């Protein structure tokens, strides 16, 4: 199978491209210099040049707080960009995997969200990603809209220009810094390597629709931080704080846990527990 990975130099995109190659698929790795999702002409030209069977769109404006100030840019990339990719993919008769987020929910449910729960984003970022979902679903029937949560991987996150959460905490801990971390935001941190493996498996099916793709279980970011230091053998003081004390501009869902109900329904859920994923990441697996 020939696969075009958009955003192939990003944190998730690099692992997706690697996982596809490991499975013997031919990969066209498209970076921003080769495809600009905000331009329908650029998207059409790039995809027509490689004529893929499957397109995986990992490109996004992911800086949640900057999105609040740069709403036009957020919607241009996350919504209009997704539409451009979906329309070009449909014209080529290819499948599309569109990456979305747990931020399409408001976090008020208090239990894990399934794919059929009504979304209600709190932030510009969440609204722009939800708009992208609707564009994709309207533009092509051969879509997999895949929502992820709390991702971290070995490659730099281009959108934020910084290491992932795990590596950032380890660096700060080794410097002896005291960490302040929110204990009232619950999510499911998930390694990009596991997401990539799941996307490869899903993309080989014709089970189109909306999917949640996260590790099993859940924890607060405070609990996740404690687990990072515990597994790394570091003694670091971590102070629990509330979201209101974090100084973040964009509102975040306090309960962003996703249940992989659709993957389990088709017997294709490949994820481990979040702590196992963290152990594997720290072990270099």
Provide structural commentary.
This protein has 285 residues and is α/β, with parallel strands linked by helices. The chain has a domain at 2-153 and 189-216 and 257-271: NAD(P)-binding Rossmann-like Domain (Rossmann fold), CATH 3.40.50.720. 40% of the residues lie in helices and 16% in strands. The chain is built from ten helices and twelve strands. It has helices at residues 11-22, 40-50, 64-69, 71-92, 124-139, 165-174, 192-203, 221-232, 261-265, 274-282, and strands spanning 2-6, 26-30, 54-57, 95-101, 143-148, 151-152, 179-182, 186-187, 190-191, 209-212, 219-220, 238-241. A six-stranded parallel sheet has the order 2-1-3-4-5-10, with helices on both faces. Helix 5 (124-139) links the parallel strand 4 and strand 5 (143-148). It is globular and about 55 Å long. The mean pLDDT is 93.
Uncertain stretches: none
CATH superfamily of one domain: NAD(P)-binding Rossmann-like Domain
Succession of helices and strands: EHEHEHHEHEEHEEEHEEHEHH
How would you sum up the major sheet?
6 strands, parallel
Oligomer: single chain
In spatial order, strands of the major sheet run: 2-1-3-4-5-10
Tell me the fraction of residues in β-strands, as a range: 15-25%
Overall morphology: globular
Mean pLDDT comes to 93
CATH architecture of one domain: 3-Layer(aba) Sandwich
**Annotation field: number of helices:** 10
CATH fold-level assignment of one domain: Rossmann fold
Number of strands: 12
Q: Tell me the span between the first and last alpha carbons.
A: 26 Å
Binned, the helix content reads: 40-55%
């Amino acid at each position: 199978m020939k696969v075009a990975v958009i955003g192939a130099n990003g944190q998730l995109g690099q692992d997706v491209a690697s996982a596809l190659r490991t499975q013997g698929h031919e990969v066209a790795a498209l970076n921003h210099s080769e495809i600009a999702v905000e331009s329908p002409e650029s998207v059409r030209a790039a995809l027509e040049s490689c004529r893929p069977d499957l397109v995986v769109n990992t490109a996004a404006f992911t800086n949640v707080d900057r999105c609040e100030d740069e709403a036009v840019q957020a919607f241009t990339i996350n919504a209009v960009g997704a539409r451009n990719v979906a329309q070009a993919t449909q014209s080529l008769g290819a499948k599309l995997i569109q990456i979305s987020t747990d931020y399409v929910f408001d976090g008020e449910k208090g239990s894990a969200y399934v794919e059929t729960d009504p979304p209600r984003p709190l932030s510009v970022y969440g609204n722009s990603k939800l708009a992208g979902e609707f564009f994709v679903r309207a533009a092509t029937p051969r879509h997999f809209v895949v929502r992820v949560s709390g991702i971290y991987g070995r490659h730099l996150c281009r959108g934020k220009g910084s290491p992932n959460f795990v590596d950032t905490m380890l660096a700060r801990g080794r410097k002896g810094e005291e960490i302040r971390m929110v204990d009232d935001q619950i999510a499911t941190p998930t390694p990009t390597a596991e997401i990539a493996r799941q996307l490869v498996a899903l993309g080989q099916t014709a089970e189109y629709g909306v999917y949640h793709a996260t590790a099993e279980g859940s924890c607060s970011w405070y609990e996740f931080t404690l687990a990072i230091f515990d597994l790394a053998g570091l003694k670091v003081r971590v102070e629990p704080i509330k979201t209101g004390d974090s100084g973040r501009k964009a509102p975040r869902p306090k309960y962003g846990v996703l249940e992989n109900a659709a993957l389990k329904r088709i017997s294709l859920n490949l994820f481990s527990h979040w702590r196992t994923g963290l152990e594997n990441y720290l072990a270099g697996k």
